[in-house]
Amino acid sequence: MPDVYLCEIVKHEKLNDTAFAVTVLCADLASNARPGQFIHVKCGESLILRRPFGVCRVLGDTMMFVFEVKGKGTSWLSLLKTGDILDILGPLGNGFSFPDGKIIVIGGGLGTPPMLHTAESAKQAVTAVLGFRDKSRVMLVNEFEAACEKVYLTTDDGSMGICGSVTVPLEDLLKKGGFEAVMACGQLAMEHAVAKLCEKYNVPCQVSLEERMGCGVGACLVCACAIQQESKEHMKRVCKDGPVFDAKKIISR
Description:
Number of helices: 6
CATH superfamily of the largest domain: Nucleotide-binding domain of ferredoxin-NADP reductase (FNR) module
Strand order of the largest sheet: 10-9-8-7-11-12-15
Helix content: 10-25%
Order of helices and strands: EEHEEEHEEHEHEEHEHEEEE
């Protein structure tokens, strides 16, 4: 069973029009967090269920996560300040596996922050492709540029970077070759499109799935997904067996 930590907030900032970043101090949590894993945060006394957030960054004894205000839990989080204490369960789940050779990390919208930890943890050269709805949603570009060999930015409306989805620069990169893996996190439609391109160019692809979660440790089965394993369909838990899976093994519904 993962540990529960009472973590002091050392930084609370707004990244763009909709996203907030919270940095907490906790040496054990920071040292154990692996790229692609997530944490489960208690959001006030009145809410029973915790909220899952991907690990965005680990610096020394601190760990950062990013969220957007979607409901009561994240609204509560947005009002916190430096010095407040968060009850955090984690780190949880299984993360990305790094091959030898160059990799591409892809982040779409709120799926972008977890890929920063992935890029900063890689020992090989990393190219990042980041996709957002528009200029007002862009975040963490400077941090990715510091960690990566090259960064491609896309927006749906063309207000910043390349106009279109992440698949536009991704296909150009895959055509040129030289990459050993693609790792992605974002909306399911984006992940499906990325996975299809990787299959077309015969490049292994890992995706981090987003699902509603109750317990975060595999007990409640709320986050079950269908996975192909040994020519049979198996139900796997995103929180415990994932959230990262081989894209080829995910069964689309």
